[in-house]
Amino acid sequence: MLIEAVALLALASAGTALLPFRRAIRFGCVARGDRQTAIDDVVWAVETASRRVPWRTMCIEKGLVVQRLLRSAGVDAILHYGARHHHETRKLEAHVWVTVGGTAVVGGAEAGEFAAITTYP
C-alpha cells in the first residue's frame, strides 16, 4: 500500500501541476471497486508516503490519492474543496479534505476554517 501511495502521489502531483483543475480533480473520482482496504490503512499510507517523498505534497494531492484509494476499495469517499480569506496576509487560501460518512479522514483539522465551495464524488 505504501509503494502504491508513493506512485499515486507522484501522479497526482504531476496532474495538479500540468493539467487544468477540472481534469486534475478527476484523478480521485474513480468508480467504486471492491478491493478490501481499511480506511485507516489508506490514510496512514498516504500520510507516511507524503512525508517521505522528495517533493512537497499539498492537501490536494493527498486528498486526491486518499479519495482514489478509498473509492477503489468501495468506500464512498467525498473530496471537499474550500477557500478562506486569510485576515492577516489578506490572501485567498484553498484547502482540500476528504470525508467518509460525514467524518473527515484527511485534512479535517483545518477544514473548519474554510468555506466549502464544492465536492467531488
How do the helices and strands line up, and which of them pair or pack?
Elements (H helix, E strand, L loop, with lengths): L1 H17 L2 H4 L14 H14 L6 H14 L4 E9 L6 E9 L2 E4 L1 H4 L3 E6 L1
Antiparallel strand pairs: 1-2, 1-4, 2-3
Protein described:
This protein has 121 residues and is of the alpha+beta class. It has one domain. It is 44% helix and 23% strand. It is built from five helices and four strands, in the order ααααβββαβ. Strands 3-2-1-4 form a four-stranded antiparallel beta sheet. α1 (2-18) crosses α3, α1 crosses α4 (59-72) and α3 packs antiparallel against α4. The chain starts with a helix and ends with a strand.
Low-confidence stretches: none
Structural class by secondary-structure content:
alpha+beta
The number of domains: 1
Largest sheet descriptor: 4 strands, antiparallel
Distance between the termini: 22 Å
State the helical fraction: 40-55%
Rg (C-alpha, Å): 14 Å
The residue-averaged pLDDT reads 93
Q: Number of helical segments?
A: 5
Strand content: 15-25%
Shape: globular
Neighbour order of strands in the largest sheet:
3-2-1-4
How many β-strand runs? 4
Order of helices and strands: HHHHEEEHE
